[in-house]
User: What shape does this take?
Amino acid sequence: MAKISKDYFGLGRVVSLILAIIPVTAWILGVCVRFSEGKLVAGILRLFLGFNIIWLVDLICMIINKRIARIINV
Assistant: This one.
């Protein structure tokens, strides 16, 4: 089982927050993080749906929890 990091690939909180604010980088990094965790279904869903409401949820979760939202864990 892959280790879950708090931020995008262990980057600092400020850098991860800046990357989460930019929609394109948040979408790409969200997909990459989910695939690197071994969650294929979640990665595919983020690939197709990660540029809309999931981006806003990720941004809020990144501010509050310091990690992206894990809506589906498959």
